[in-house]
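=== Structure Prediction Worksheet ===
Name of assembly: unnamed complex
Input type: mixed (protein and possibly other molecules)
Chain count: two
Listed entries:
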Amino acid sequence: MPNPTRIEVNCITGEVLEVELTDAEMEQREVDAAAYAIEQAEQEAEATAKAEAKARGDAKLLALGLTAEEITAR
Amino acid sequence: MANTYEQIGTTQTVGSAVASVTFSDIPQTYTDLKVVVSARSDAAALTVVMRLLINALTSGYTDKYLYGSGSAAGSGSYGATNGFLGDINAANSTASTFASTDVYIPNYTSANAKSWSVDDVSETNATTIYMELTAGLNSTTAAITSLVLNLSAGNFVTNSTFSLYGIKKN
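=== Predicted Assembly ===
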């Protein structure tokens, strides 16, 4: 199966080429995609942890006697 | 359209999926550049990130973006090895919908760091989808002669389009 291609437009000559990615470029793409997937997972985990911490904090404030309105207004 | 706003070359329409689109040998005769994109990725995700390489550089990028997801809003920043151009539709979004992206690059021939701004919106028939405003910078002081647009995952699908414009001072 051939590698994906890229489009190259020369803005001076107007020439448009469609070039197959080299194996090295394919490897770099895979490295980039893996790094991006890890970064996304870390961001999602961080957001989840933050939301859970907020929920725990809100629950404690409710237990101390604050109203939901007072908690939201902070 | 003002005569100071000219298309450079022709709109590139993807015929079969491609990994990236490069505009090279960009004329140095304009003041600003604008890139207009309608695109979708074939990656198995709701959206993926479209990225920018200025003069093929893989370092020196910083950015800040503000986003709305349909139910939340927030901000963030992307890595230093690619310029951030926002999210575009991917394979898990509604079929045949494409994201719209406008990129503005002022003073691209200057000897100062290069900045860009982006407004982009993806499309899908569901609650969660993204719109973003981005401000980005690359530390290079060289004039911009090439722009590469690529993706964090997958390829640009058939019928994605890419147009480059040059804008001159009046």
